[in-house]
Amino acid sequence: MSEDTRLTRRTFLKGAAAATAATPLLASQRVRVSAAQVPTDLALLTLAQAAQLLSTRQASPVELLDACLRRIDALEPRVGAFITLVPDAAREAAREAEREIMAGGYRGPLHGIPFGVKDTHYTKGIRTTAHSPLLADFVPDFDATVVARLKDAGAILLGKLNLPEWSFGGLTPGTSNPWDLSRTPGGSSGGSAAALAARMLPAATGGDTTGSVRQPAILCGVVGFKATYGRVSRRGIVAISWTLDHVGPMTRTVEDNALLLNVIAGYDPQDPGSANVPVPDYTRALDRGVRGLRIGIPERSILAPHHPDALRAFDDALRVLEGLGATVTEVAMPPSYRGMSPAHNLTRIMEAAAYHRPHLLANPDGYGEGSPVRRDVEAGSLLMAADYEKAQRVRRRFTREFRALFDAIDLYVMPGHDAPAGITMPGSNGLDLDRIFNLTGFPSLSVPCGFSTDPPGLPLGLQIAAPPFEEERIFAAAQAYQAVTDWHTRVPSV
Fold first, then answer.
1. Is 212 a catalytic residue?
2. Is 444 annotated as catalytic?
3. Which domains occur in the chain, in start order?
4. Which of 347, 357, 389, 478 would you call most buried, defined as having the most Cβ atoms within 10 angstroms of its Cβ?
């Protein structure tokens, strides 16, 4: 540690008592950290815990960033979560955050917090590759709206996180699951999930077209949220499918997720799909609990192909929610469910074909070797407008019928994934339930709910969904569950 850093640390500690009295702690913080409890490795702190220490000057942004960088130096060669790291720019931003906080200019709970973004997010002056040779040297001249909002809140961009080429596929080549380095972290936001699980940083973002925030979050034991379509701006995001793509917060706890969504949510007139809907303070929902809430679950026939451990963890989680005062009822899917996945797939590949047409015309051999991207977009380009229109008719019908289910329930809850990381279940398509919420645009959050026994020690998850713009309902239930379980506190021994 440099002499400047030591002096800064002493200055922060000297001002801690006064700052504690002058700066109110975040109302949403449920796990507070006293000065005596500050861990040796600050990278182990959750976002909310780190925010508490920074706001009260018990730790400095420079110290927190250095802790994250040390952990990255130690673990990144084995995990492979990042495509690009920007430590020098991050240190300068941390020093600036430190100066602002010391001068009384604390901006809020993201101030001084390191974060990473999936490498589909435009970052001004920093290459944005989408892990494709076609974009290997692309350096945007503006930040994606999500990145800009995080920076405006005082957060510190630490790097760009790994993904499969152009976000195509449920695996993330080059990234390992911190719970078992021989297994996948999922995809496409696999780098984000792996970095969070390995405690390399406290906050990240991902993209979700077919469960690509929620699935890797489940497989890596963290929290991922695909909010309502239009809730989070997609301006400056490399696309797959304009009407299915979502950008979402990824964190280690539900509380942290609410804090992150508070910052990145909101109307953006530069995103044609953005919804001009008021954004609440999501942390206010965290104490509501689930008493009296009506929970619907899928028919058991839909879940039959799931791994036994996934079903066990799901049933255990339902018992917890019932014990907290919720009621649970099996709900039949509408008849249009049979056409839901085909409608999603047609929409995805036809919109991807439109997006990629310039690349296919200019450099069809520029995609990565063995990548499914060229195959899928060429297939999409061969389909007819009538095929797209038929898919949209099915989409509209299914959305209407699925929305009607919420006349009798408040939340829809299901296993997060059909199996632990790296396991393929015969007769199952583990993404079918995920696709529902991309096709309809309804919000859905994944939260850790256990670990597998066969194979042992792999994270399992629960997915909680609600009608459009009812994210608060989801946060209330997820926080109530997480408050009485400890799955999210466990750390992989990577």
1. yes
2. no
3. 78-331+408-494 (3.90.1300.10), 339-393 (no CATH)
4. 478
